[in-house]
Every structure is written in C-alpha cells, then in structure tokens.
Amino acid sequence: MKESDSIWMDGALVPWADATVHVLSHGLHYGTAVLEGTRAFETATGPAVFRLDEHLRRLFRSAAMIGLSIPYTMDELRAATLETVRANGHPSCYIRHLVHRGYGEMGIAARGCPVTVSIATWEWGALLGAGVRLMTSSWRRNDHTVVPTAAKATGPYLNSVLAKSEALDAGYDEALLLNASGYVSEATGANVFVVRDGRLFTPPSSAGALEGITQDTVERLAADLGVPVARQDLLRSDLYAADEAFLCGTAAGIVPVFSLDNRELGGAGPITGKLADAYDAAVHGRDDRYRTWLTPVTT
Length: 299
Description:
Blueprint: E1 6-9, E2 12-15, H1 26-30, E3 33-41, E4 48-50, H2 52-65, H3 74-88, E5 93-101, E6 115-122, E7 132-136, H4 158-169, E8 174-178, E9 184-187, E10 191-196, E11 199-202, H5 213-224, E12 229-231, H6 236-240, E13 244-249, E14 253-260, E15 263-264, H7 270-283, E16 294-296
Parallel strand pairs: 7-8, 7-14, 11-12
Antiparallel strand pairs: 1-2, 1-6, 3-4, 3-5, 4-16, 5-6, 8-9, 10-11, 10-13, 13-14, 14-15
C-alpha cells in the first residue's frame, strides 16, 4: 500500500503521518467505530467515485445502530471525500471512511468521548487477485443476536481477522464463514454468489452477511443481463455442487472461486465472466445505463 499525501480528519486535510489518534481512544479499546470501503475509478472524463451516496448512507445507518452520532451531514462528507481524492491526485483509489469514539474518558460506557471522523485514500489494486481458493473456517460468523451484523462496525471484524489468518496459515487465499446454524454467511470481507442452472443465489442478511453494495450492484447487473437472482439460505454443499461461484466486494471486485475445501469449482464460468465484464464497464463509465452510480471527483 502506497501512502498518500493527505488524510481528511474532522474538517481538515492533514499530512498522512500526522493523522494520529490518542492511545486511549475509546474505539481502539472497545471497537466503537464504523467504517466504509469505497472506490474511485478512472473514467474517460476523469476519476469518479462508485456509488458514493450508497456508501455514505450505510455509514450513517451503521453509526446509528451502534449509537454513534456523526457530527457532519452527508453532503459535508460527500464533499470531503471528493476533496481528499482530488488533493491526493489519484486517477483511481480505495477510500476508507472511519467514524470512531475518540479520547475523553475510559470505561465501557464512555458517553463523553468525542466522535471523530476521518477519510483516507490510497492506490490499491484488486484485493484478491484473479481468483481464490477457499476453505470453510472453523470460526462461525457473528450472530445478529450478539452484535448488529447489519452494521459495518470495526469490533466484529475480529471475527474476519481470525478466519482470514486461519485460511492463510492453512495455505488458502480466503475463508468462507458459516453462521451458527451452519448456513453460508459470507467470506471475511466479501459476499458470496453461487451459480446453478443459470440462476444466481446469494445468502440473505439474516445469515449474518453484510448487505453489500457490490452485492446489490451484481444483482442489478444480473437482472439487466436476464439472469435470475435470489437471496436464500445456502449450505456449504451448495457451493460444492455449484456450476460457478464467486465473491464480490468493493475491495475485491468480482472474483471467481477456484475451489472450496480442495473441491475444484472450475474458476470463472460464463455467467461470472459476463457479470465481471458488466461491472468493469459500469465502474469505468463505459455503460451509460449506470452513469448515476458515478460521482465525478472534479466538478
């Protein structure tokens, strides 16, 4: 990861190395923070952020779920996001929004801690490369009765960190997480899709899967391609018997699954390929049908 020049923190651009927080920040100790991962892509008319408003709306929803009040409006954060990308001169980049309880007092409640907002950008390639070998993790996905799985909060990501480390240590690229009932939830930072008999299936949020913005994008692209899509509970064996399977997320894009638990799934099949091509055209502004998903960085 290449460092950028500036990071936006609470209303001002500061040098990358100076974007620091106090060691007693509440979010550092207790996971009271929410985040978003967004991307800007190169287009023929300059860089544009993909589905920025949807990401910001989810940031505000996540903050509300864990009791954080964001001290900025959505319009202010939209402008700050574009300002940060412009200031760093990125043709394309990854964007990380973070809202966390800062330093004020220690203890679980810590209602007196200020809420801090930051926006960082850096140039980052596709996170998972051209395809992945998955293993089913021994760790189960967080249960919605324990933490609000619909919130993109930092604390619950320890679940993903443990699963990812287990997979890498075992020689795989990524982990598949099941929920407490044994149904497929998601990967450590991406949604899962299965292709069977020309139809797409993806786990619902009730399985512990985050309602992904790229997941929603794939569903809309599939509908325009005439591919039926359903959100329904899936078993691990549904992936074993799939015609195709892929992961999707902002950081990863659309990534074919080569194998799960050493069972070969064949890699990028025809439907995965069509969706990947449609996604690439949408994010780079080559398909006018999806122009409204792009927010130009320079206006």
